[in-house]
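Lab notebook: predicted structure, single chain.

Context: the supervisor wants predicted structures on file for every construct in the current expression panel, including those that have not yet been purified. This is the next one on the list. No modifications to the sequence; it matches the entry in the shared construct table.
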Amino acid sequence: MSSQPEFGDGLRAELGSPRRSRRLSSSPRSRVWRVELPDGSAVVKQIVDGPDADERYAREVAALRLAARAEPPVVPALLATDPGERLLVLEQLDHRRPSSDWIVGYAAALARLHATAGPGDVGVLPRWRGPSRADIDSFLALARALRVPVGPGVPGELDDLVTRLADLPGHALLHGDPCPGNDLHTATGIRFVDFEQASLGSGVMELAYLRIGFPTCWCVTAAPAPLLERAERAYRTAWRDATGSECRGDLADACAGWLIRGDALVERARRESVDHLARIPREDWEWGTATARQRLVHRLGVVSGTTAGHTPLSGLSGLTAGMRQAMLARWPSLRPVPTRRP
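Prediction complete. Output recorded below exactly as produced.
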């Protein structure tokens, strides 16, 4: 691909010829430019070649079109597309430094994003996929490697958890990676970008990001409890205002589902490769604001707390508390994950 965005005849006829362009930072899976067009600035994104490039492009386009229903907007306007080049032209928005309580407005915007899709959109995007029984096996093997006893009821609890998550009702528009960095804090509100992993499912799976620590993201944060409670209330209020119904789904289940997924310890390019939970006893690795062991200790603590007194996962509550204690005893230098985003 060229170092400049490829504007074909169709885009030139629709938007005019770009006068100048400047490369912006992006993931290895895409190239992004800021360009000057006759009517002003825009952002051009091109999906990089790869075995799933066409699918990622199709997901992003479909999600942006669904999300465009929100008013006020929750995504940049999609100005034009070139499917042959897997290229999108988007409204250019100026990002401002988020406030200290950014997570509250973020949560409300996330709920409004989720509410833009419904039952009539079945088939527009794939269904969200939860953890598998292979994830259960890896998680229990880690517990044994840490020499933490696994209660006799825990495997059954986790089997039931995987089934419940697979059967979760809902047709919310899920971002797929709703993380700090994929949110633009603008003068007119928060807008989300980068929808290559978008799907349809239950919004509670992404509401859980706030509590479990943004599991698919380089930027792990753990909001103080009062701020987290405000954010979760803001999500539920915004969902109710947008849909006229209460947010459904069990937050304890959602957090436990993210905990047992080893792929939630590495960036997208390294997922679906090896058993990352099996690596934890012998190695630690950095990704963004926290190491893999830091991430896991945080998630174990969250799940231990959210499942306490939760009958379907009572055995898991004790197991996760024991695993967290074992990790902190073995690696006492592990620090808590950051409370603020960079």
